[in-house]
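Incident review: delayed structure delivery

Summary: a single-chain prediction request sat in the queue longer than the usual turnaround. Root cause was a stuck worker, restarted by the on-call engineer. No data loss occurred. The affected request and its eventual output are reproduced below so the record is complete for anyone auditing the incident later.

Affected input:
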Amino acid sequence: MNSTVLQTESTKTKTLVINALFIALTLVATMFINIKLPIMGNGGLIHLGNVPLFIAALVYGKKTGAVAGAFGMGFFDLLSGWAAWAPFTFIIVGTMGFLAGLISEKVPGKRVVVNTLAVIVALIIKIVGYYFAEVIIYSNWILPFGSIPGNVMQVVIAGIIVVPIVGRLKRTGQFNQL
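Output delivered after worker restart:
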């Protein structure tokens, strides 16, 4: 085999391993590091699954962010008995990861500001996406407002954790984009 073929195979393997790692980290952080809020409706679930999701998106880019979010949190819904939520989660959180990664990749400027913008866009997607998902699931336009505080808290907490460390992770050079 020539070196180009070996390099391509190595890149594919690295991509597969990184994606699988962030799917697993997102699933575990969502499943085991969470608090259910006692608020009306679904009430909101505060979890740290957005931390590995945002690290995946901001360090490795839009594809890894989308895969980590869609599959990691989608699997959480399936494994936790919330299967009705899985299709919504797959789309909403996959979109969050994709757009956060896309913004981080494409928008020029100071990294802290760009990554904060990426988290804010992800927050908007989460609030709007889950609001309409709950409207569909509950057939009610008022009840979904009860989940907004939990959605805001989990993304804001993740952003506070991730934005400062992502720059450090990228500067070490060990975390190169795929």
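Verification: The mean pLDDT is 90.
Action items: add queue-age alerting; document worker restart procedure.
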